[in-house]
């Protein structure tokens, strides 16, 4: 087990600082009226910041940056499945009313 | 016989592994497989959230405005700090500093309990009292200065917003409460001197679980508290 990479407290502390800044950013992006562009843009901003925070936690706190390729594949697998789940389901919801010339889809605005 | 001899040298190497690296790698993969299952579990809930949000955007906006960003934000800070103390715990476990490890695990437990306590007293309890709880109990009290506006909301899907709010944040809180139990066991084991530089994988893997729970909150916070 001595082979396992030891991440230093300094790296952890820097990571915590980045996470705190990103958390402040996500609140500013949502609550500062100047940045209210549109629902879609604001949702995209919120999700981008959340993904950035997730990457900080996974790569540093969870040591994936210092792990083997195989661990990286295992760590990505669940999230890859999640992308398939969301994409296919929303393709279904978005296309449900395509066959009807008059009906307007209640989904996706 | 040579492989048996190498096991005799190292009491922390299980008999079915050849080397320490193999043992660490195998256990790490197993833990990530468990976490992939957790991603799939929460993934279903996130999908339900995405569908109903696209169906009822007005309800999402109205519901979100009654959630307290300050309380949610302070709780986010507690959770990020607890992830940091947990990561430091892993460092002290790897370097064999048992006293510091126990302190870091205690700090993680304290921050986690603070999160759940704040959640109950400042979020769940006032909502249930004001009738903002989906199902049979749903009856927003118009006299309530904070949640009263919901009684006049005409649109659909408001109960769905609060159903997903209680289920998703509730499942997150349940994961934390399970974590408290494991943390208590790990703290007792640390004080018995069971973890050191040659044996720290249980700390490392509990850390992975704890950080995963943190990631779930990283998404829940903007998705519920910050809907424009």
Explain what this protein looks like in three dimensions.
- The complex is a heterodimer of chains A (109) and B (228).
- Chain A has helices at 9-31, 39-61, 69-95.
- With 109 residues, chain A is mainly alpha-helical.
- Chain A folds into 2 domains: 1-67; 68-109, no CATH class.
- The longest helix of chain A is centred in the C-terminal third of the chain and has 27 residues, at 69-95.
- The termini of chain A are far apart.
- With 228 residues, chain B is an all-alpha fold.
- Chain B has one domain (28-225): Cytochrome c oxidase, subunit III, four-helix bundle (Four Helix Bundle (Hemerythrin (Met), subunit A), Up-down Bundle), CATH 1.20.120.80.
- Chain B contains 7 helices and no strands.
- Chain B has helices at 2-9, 20-55, 57-65, 69-94, 98-129, 158-191, 201-225.
- In chain B, helix 5 (98-129) runs antiparallel to helix 6.
- Classes of the chains: A mainly alpha (109), B mainly alpha (228).
- At the A-B interface, helix 1, helix 2 and helix 3 of A face helix 2, helix 4 and helix 7 of B.
């Amino acid at each position: 087990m001595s082979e396992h990479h030891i991440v230093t407290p300094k790296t952890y502390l820097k990571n915590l600082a980045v996470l705190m800044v990103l958390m402040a950013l996500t609140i500013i992006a949502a609550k500062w009226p100047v940045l209210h562009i549109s629902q879609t843009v604001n949702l995209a901003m919120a999700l981008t910041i959340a993904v950035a925070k997730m990457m900080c936690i996974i790569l540093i706190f969870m040591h994936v940056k210092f792990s083997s390729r195989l661990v990286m594949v295992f760590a990505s697998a669940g999230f890859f499945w999640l992308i398939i789940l969301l994409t296919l389901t929303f393709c279904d919801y978005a296309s449900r009313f395509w066959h009807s010339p008059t009906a307007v889809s209640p989904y996706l605005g | 016989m040579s492989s048996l001899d190498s096991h005799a040298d190292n009491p922390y190497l299980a008999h079915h592994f050849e080397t320490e690296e193999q043992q660490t790698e195998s256990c790490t993969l197993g833990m990530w497989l468990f976490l992939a299952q957790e991603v799939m579990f929460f993934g279903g809930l996130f999908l339900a959230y995405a569908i109903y949000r696209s169906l009822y955007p007005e309800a999402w906006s109205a519901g979100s405005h009654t959630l307290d960003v300050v309380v949610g934000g302070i709780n986010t800070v507690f959770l990020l700090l607890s992830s940091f103390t947990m990561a430091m715990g892993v460092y002290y476990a790897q370097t064999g500093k048992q006293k510091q490890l126990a302190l870091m695990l205690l700090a993680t437990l304290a921050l986690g309990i603070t999160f759940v306590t704040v959640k109950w007293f400042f979020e769940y309890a006032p909502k249930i009292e004001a009738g903002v709880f989906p199902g049979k109990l749903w009856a927003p009290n118009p006299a309530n200065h904070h949640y009263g506006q919901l009684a006049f909301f005409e649109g659909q899907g408001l109960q769905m917003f609060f159903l997903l709010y209680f289920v998703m944040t509730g499942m997150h809180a349940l994961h934390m409460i399970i974590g408290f139990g494991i943390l208590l066991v790990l703290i007792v084991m640390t004080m018995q001197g069971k973890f050191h530089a040659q044996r720290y994988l249980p700390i490392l893997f509990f850390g992975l679980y704890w950080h995963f729970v943190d990631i779930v909150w990283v998404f829940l916070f903007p998705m519920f508290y910050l809907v424009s």
